[in-house]
Every structure is written in structure tokens, then in C-alpha cells.
Amino acid sequence: MKLLLGLCSALLLVLVLTGRCSAQTPHRCRTPALLSGSMSVSAREGQDWAIAKYRYDAIGQRIRLWEFGQVDSKSFHANMLFLFRKAVVYTIDYRNRTCQKNPLHTAFHPSHIPHNASLLSQVILGGSSAPGEGLLVNTWTGDVPETGGKYLATVTEFGCIPVSTLYYTEKSGWVVTTYFNAVKGIEDPEQFFPPPFCTDADTEEEELDFFSAFF
């Protein structure tokens, strides 16, 4: 997965400027290899958006998404399975028992803070008056030379669980992702296998990438 999951930029900047730092020394980290949770994604200043449940498997290089949202003022639902090692993505319709199969032209990028990322801040989300009132997070920033993009990524200090990302390219503008309800592990590994009615699906010509799931 290309985490590649955010707070709106204004709120994040306020937290950066006013948040209290702790004595912990932030370190670059890697998200747990198996993770289940939910996420929201928005682009074009909120005109396009999606809410999704996700299953993330960095070991097998697989991602499963169940989502709904709105793009170009039109609502949509999608059930997608990304198999990066096989370089294919399935769009699955259980109601009609149909399956669309497309080439997946991007490599798998595990969710992590890159080695060349720069620490922007360490802050407490929520309250800091008493234990349990807030969440200690680290925000990192960096460039993505291969796309000409840049990013702002926030993860928890303990566990390296994604909290938010802001990702920018000239093509997409700012894409804001927020992650929530994350749990380590995968409850049902069968979710990473296409259903039987996908076996005979012909491969479409159009190549897709991970952002195709949303926009």
C-alpha cells in the first residue's frame, strides 16, 4: 500500500504551532505489517471524497478496500482488491457477481516514514492535562522526487500507527487522508483472495494505480 491516509491543513498547522512537545525523541518508523481500520480521503478542497474500510498486508503486498464516496458530484460504491505481486487489481461486485480485472502499474510501497523525512513537530492531539486525554504523534515532511510531489505524514509515537497524510502533486493537488479505528492484524485472511466468480474475468486494458480507488 502506498501510503500511502489527514487532518485539514489549517488544523494541522495550528497543532504544529501550539502543540506541546514531550521528552520522547521522535524516530522514523514503519507501520505494522498487518493492519485493519478505516480511512477518509478528500481532494479538490473536499469536492471529491471517500470513506473506506481497509485491510493492509505488507507481507503479501496486498490491500483490500470497501468504500463509498463522491467524485464530480456523483456518488459511488466500490469493493477493490489490490494484489501488487501479481500486478492486478480487482473491482468486485457481489450483488451482480461480476468482477473487473485491471493491470496494476505501480509497485507496492509499505507504509513507513522514509529515511530522508524531516521531523516537523511532535505534539499531543487532544488534552495534555492528565494521562489518557491525548495522543502523542509525530509529524514528518518530505519530497517525492519520482512524482515531483511532497507530503506531510503524522503517525503515533508509540506503534507508528498512521493518523493522517497530506500528499501533493501538480496532477492531483492536495489529497488529505485521515486514518481511524486501526487494529493490528487481519481477522479474515480470505479477504485477500478474489471470489470464485472472478476466476474467468478478462484483464482490461486500462492500467490503474492505488489512487484509482478514490479518484
List descriptors:
1 helix, mainly beta, 215 residues, eleven-stranded antiparallel beta sheet
List the helices and strands and how they pair.
Elements: H1 9-18, E1 34-43, E2 48-57, E3 62-71, E4 74-83, E5 88-93, E6 98-103, E7 118-126, E8 134-144, E9 149-156, E10 162-169, E11 173-184
Antiparallel strand pairs: 1-2, 1-11, 2-3, 3-4, 4-5, 5-6, 7-8, 8-9, 9-10, 10-11
Describe the structure.
The protein is mostly beta strands and 215 residues long. It is built from one helix and eleven strands; from the N terminus they run H-E-E-E-E-E-E-E-E-E-E-E. The protein has an eleven-stranded antiparallel β-sheet with strand order 6-5-4-3-2-1-11-10-9-8-7, covered by helices on one side. InterPro entries: Ependymin. Belongs to the ependymin family.
Kindly summarize this structure in a few lines.
With 215 residues, the chain is mainly beta.
Number of strands: 11
Measured distance between first and last alpha carbons: 16 Å
Please indicate the percent range of residues in DSSP E strands (runs of 2 or more).
over 45%
Query: What average pLDDT do the residues reach?
Result: 86
Major pleated sheet: 11 strands, antiparallel
Give the helix/strand class. Answer: mainly beta
Shape: globular
Q: Which ranges are low-confidence, i.e. pLDDT below 50, for 5 or more consecutive residues?
A: 1-23
Q: Report the helical percentage.
A: under 10%
- Order of helices and strands, N to C? HEEEEEEEEEEE
Count helical runs: 1
Strand order, biggest sheet? Answer: 6-5-4-3-2-1-11-10-9-8-7
What does the radius of gyration come to? 18 Å
